[in-house]
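S., here's the first fold you wanted:
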Amino acid sequence: MLLPPCHAFFQFNVDTTNKKLNLQLYQRSADMFLWVPFNIASYSTLLLLVAKITWLKPWVFTHTLWDAHIYNNHIDQVNEQLWNKPYPLPELKILKDIKTLEDIEKLEWEDFELIWYKSHWVIKAPVAV
C-alpha cells in the first residue's frame, strides 16, 4: 500500500436503556475535501445496517479526526464549495429485509433508496497521495 489506512478503528456502543446504537470512528488522517464526506456517508450507512440487524435504533455517529487537512491543490475547489448553500439532508432507506451479517454482505445497490437527495454541480479535484 502507498499509505497506511486512514481509519484507525471504529466501535459500537449500545444504550441498553433506550435500545439505541451509537458508532464512533477514529480517523488518523482526514482529507476534508475529498474523503471525509464519503467517510461520513459510509459509516452512517454502516450504523443503519448494524442497527437494523440488532433491532436497535440508529442514534449517534461520532467522527473523531486527528490530522484533518485540506491539500494545497484543493484550495480552489474548497473555495468554490464554500459558496454552495447546503441542502436538507436526504434519507437512506434499506429496502431489503436483513437480519444477519451475511444478509448485509449480499446487499446490492438496488436494495437501497436515497430519498430527497439533491446535490450541487460536481467539483473535481485530484486525489493526493
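And the second, which I think is the more interesting of the pair:
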Amino acid sequence: MLHYFKFRQDLLSPRAGKDVYVKRPAGRGWPEECPPIRAASAFGFDLLANFDVAFVRNRSGEWHVEDDVTIESDFNYAGGDDASGEGDTGQPLRQQYAWFWEKGQTLPHAITDNVYAEIRNQVKISSFLFLKTDPNELLLMTDVPNQRRPWKAMTALIDTDWYPASYPWHCVVELDPSQKRIEIQKGEALCRIMPVRRDTYFAKQMSPTEFDEFFARGQQWLATHGQVRHEGAVDITRTYVRQQIKSKFVVMD
C-alpha cells in the first residue's frame, strides 16, 4: 500500500491514473483505443502539480523558474525538547516548489561542470507529499505513459519501505532545450508512481515442447474467441476487452 501525508492539507493528493488523458477529435485508430495502452495509462498513481509554474530559458541556455513558490507546512516541527523543560512547540517547515541543479554545487552531492552541462535542463519539482510503502514494496517513479509533452519525468526506483525521508519527495523533470518557455498547470500530472515488489525476477527461454504447447493454446484461443474478418484476419479486440482484468488504484481519503 502507498501511504502518504501532505505537507499542507489544502494541497493535492495522489490521483489514480486514467485510461485516457488526451481528448481526441473524431476518427478511428487513436492509440487510446488500444486496450493494453489504456491499461498502461491507468496503471499507478499520478502525483499532481500543486501550482502553476513556468520555466523560462535565456539566450545562454540557462533556465529559471518564473514566480517560484515557497510554502510552509501546516504542522510544526521541533528538533528536540526545550532546555527549559517547558517543551518546544516547534516551527513550520518550509519547502520550495521547483529548483534547478546549481553549477559548482557540492551539496547534497557534488556536480562537476562537465556533468552540469548535461543536466542543466533538469528541474526538481516537489510533490509536497511524504511517501512510504509497506515492507518489500518500492515506488517506481516515471513519466505518465504515452504522453507527448515538452518535458518528461525521469525514471527512478525509490526504496520507500526502509528509507524514512523527512522531506516531501520530488520528481526530476527534464525540459526540452528547444523550447524557450514551458508551463505546467496546477492539477496536471507531474509523474506516475507505481508500487512494485522487491523480488527476484527471472527470464528463461521456453523449451520446444513448452513453446509447442503455448502456440497450440494460442491457436485454440483464437479459434474460440476470434472473429474472422477479410482475408482470414482474426479480430480479437472486443473479446480482449471483455476478458482483460485490469488492476485498480484507489485513493482513500
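Why I say that: The helical segments are 35-41, 113-119, 208-225, 237-243. The mean pLDDT is 92.

Talk tomorrow,
H.
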